[in-house]
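Supplementary Methods, section 5.1.

A reviewer requested that the exact input to the structure prediction be made available. We therefore reproduce it here, unchanged from the version used in the analyses.
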Amino acid sequence: MLSPLGLLNALGGMGRHCETRSVPYGPGPRQSLDIYRPHMRGRPPAPVVVFFYGGGWVEGDRALYRFVGAALAAQGFVTVIPDYRVHPEVRFPTFLEDGARAVQWVRGQIGTFGGDPDRMVLMGHSAGAHLAAMLSFDRQWLGAYGLVPGRDLRGMVGLAGPYDFLPLRTAVLKSIFGPESRWPESQPIRFVDGTAPPAWLATGRVDTVVDPGNAVRLAARIHAAGGHAEVQTYDRVGHATLLGAISPLLRPLAPVTRDVAQFITAVTRHSPAWLAPLHSQQAHA
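The structure derived from this sequence is encoded token-by-token as follows.
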């Protein structure tokens, strides 16, 4: 019997795109990625989406999210889905280091697969949205690889992400994120300074796993810092079905695919106005 994710993959429009699987971005068994791309013959390089799946920082497998790669490729985006190490093999911040390493690989290599590395967006669901947000707002992780979020990313898409979730209450979370003195270092909201790329934050009104207030609070902090953020709340979806609605099977629940595609297209179409002050600052540094 197919699992829910297996069913979404089976009915996810496979075959309308090209796939390249199990490409290593590091030496470890969980440091590989899959690439989904539209048929590129005669087309200019396409925008790039790096999608990080969720799983509570304790599980996940890129092969379970083929429906996401297929859906985004159908929208015209070269989509990369990396694995990353999880607890108990590793603890915070090692999964962020894996994520940054995957982004560095994409930046340097995605042109070979028809993607435009200058038009890259990070996207994630649940714990993967936390990962995408940390890489977008806390500059140290991409900075370790010579990348700057406000320069090298065009946007961040978060689906049902935890961005401001202290205090930690479960033993597993306390084990993942270490002693209480380090908890603030794990919160994306702490690193908002107005220089990150625009964020599009989606929530399901009936999400009982991650409080939708995470997105609201993060967007408010971004606005207060002079940045760009939008929150989209869908009435009929919860934590899992927010992502599931990307699949054709569940797409009638909410227009997540349409809205994500519109945001990515908008931020990757031209050099956005928010880059001008950053480039000016860098020119005078």
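The first helix runs from residue 4 to 10. These observations are discussed further in the main text.
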